[in-house]
Amino acid sequence: MAAVMADSAKVRVENNKLAKRLRRQVGQAIEDYAMIAPGDRVMVCLSGGKDSYTMLDLLMRLRASAPVEFELVAVNLDQKQPDFPADVLPRWCAEQGIEFRQLDQDTYSVVKRVIPEGKTMCSLCSRLRRGALYRYAGEQGFTKIALGHHRDDILATFFLNLFYGGKLKAMPPKLRSDDGRHIVIRPLAYVREADIVEWAAQRSYPIIPCNLCGSQEQLQRKVVRRMLDDWERGHPGRAEQIFAALRNIEPSQLADPQLFDFAGLDEGKGKGHRWLIAAPDEDLA
Ligand code: SF4
User: Fold this and answer.
1) Atom of ligand 1 nearest to the CA of 211
2) Ligand 1 atom at minimal distance to the Cα of residue 126
3) 254, 169 in Cβ contact below 8 A?
4) Cα 282 to the chain's mean position, in Å?
5) What pLDDT is stored for residue 9 in this prediction?
6) Does the CB atom of residue 121 touch ligand 1 within 6 A?
7) What is the pLDDT of residues 88-123, one digit of tens each?
8) From the alpha carbon of 107, which atom of ligand 1 is closest?
9) Domain map of the chain by residue range?
10) Bridge partners, residue 75, by sequence
11) For the whole model, what pTM was predicted?
12) For ligand 1, is residue 103 a contact (CB within 6 Å)?
C-alpha cells in the first residue's frame, strides 16, 4: 500500500513538472518573439490533434495570468473527410469554456480529385486548409493566427529544406504570411513532441486522427523524423542543441552574400568587376 502511494506521489510530481515546463516554454516563446500584444484577437487553429489541443489548453492557462489582455477563439475547418466527428471539438471547447467556431469546406474532394491514387495528399490538403483559415481570419478581424507546430516540426522542416531543398530554412515561431495580411504565431516552438504526447495522454484529449483521409505521411518527412528520433536515442540532447543553433546564427560564417556583405569587408574594393567573362580563345581545359 505504501509503495503504491509513493508511486502515485512520484507520478504527481512528474506531471506537475511537465505542466510547469510546458507553461514556461510557451510563455518564453511568446515573450522572446513578442507573439501576443495587448488587445490581440488570436484565432487558434484547432484540428483535433494532440498538438493543437495542447496549444489551446496552454494558451488558455497562460491567459489567466498573462501580463496583457487578449482574446482566444478556437477555429476548426471541417474538410469533409469521411467519418469526421464534427461534434467532438465543439463539445470539448464548451466544456473548457472557450469560444469555438466551425468552418466547412470540402477540401477532401478537391484533393482526391487532383492527387493521383497512392500519392501523398498532405501538401495540397494543408495548403487548401491554410487558405480557408487565413481567409476566415481576415474576414473576422483576427490579429494573430496560432498554429500548433512544435520544436520537432521546426527541426524536421529545417532538415527537409536542407536535404531536399538546398536551403537553410526552417519554420519560424512568428511570421507574416506571404500575402502580407496575417501574422502567424507558433506558441509551441520550444516544446518537444515527446512532452506533448505525454501531456495529451494525461489530459485525455479526445483526439481526432489526421488520417481519416487515408493519406500517408510524405516519405521524405518520415525519413527525417526517423533520423531525428535515432539521433535523440543515441545522443540525448542533440535535437535541443540543433534548435539552439537555429537561434544563434552567424551570417558572417556562412556563405550567403545576400545575408552578409562579404564584398564590403574591404570597403567594397573588389566590387563591380565582372569575372565570369572568359577570354574568347582562352583554353580552359
Ligand atoms: S493526413 Fe489527410 S487530413 Fe491530414 S494533412 Fe494529410 S491529407 Fe490532410
Assistant:
1) 1
2) 5
3) no
4) 53
5) 81
6) yes
7) 999 999 999 999 999 999 999 999 999 988 888 888
8) 8
9) 29-253
10) 45, 101
11) 0.92
12) no
